[in-house]
Amino acid sequence: MKTRRGTLARSTKRLTVRPLRATDFKAWRDAYLGAGEKQNEWDRSRRPLAELRPPSFKKLLKTQKLTRLRDEKVDFGIFRKDTGEYIGAVSIIAINRSFLQSAIVGYSLFPSHWRQGFGKEFLRAAMDIAFRDLKLHRLHAPISPKNVRSKKLAKSLKFRNEGLCRRYLLIDGVWTDHCIFAITAEEYLG
Q1: Residue 25 and residue 31: Cα distance in Å, rounded?
Q2: What is the pTM (predicted TM-score) of this model?
Q3: Which CATH class is domain 2-189?
């Protein structure tokens, strides 16, 4: 996908990170249908069956396109190159174009693809899009203090822990604390 800011897609050694397309419905639906039981409190791989139908997917695509055009949020699907499987999502959200030029990065991977090194690949691709194509200055990654794997991933990509924000995100009806990890364009681009 090409925009006035560049190509909003990246290819890594094993993955393609890009906005969803209408032709992705089957891969997207199959991923959610095969997700299995929830693995931990951060596992967002379950959706109600009613949400896994073509009208819901079309609505999702429309919403994603609208937020992308409004420069508010960019959502990406994560696809394996070897199988074409949809294995997760990464989003650049809460884009602030005022004097901050910042956004939040959020991500999730289906449990069957955990512990295979995909996180570093897709997050690096999203960072590249954020800093090179979207021309952002700063990315934040709010991470639960108990989510050791996600904190390790952020640190491996040079995000620094800037502190704890109390009652930062509303998750499942509860305000939860989060560590704020951050990186700037200068740190990423060198």
Answers
A1: 10
A2: 0.91
A3: alpha beta
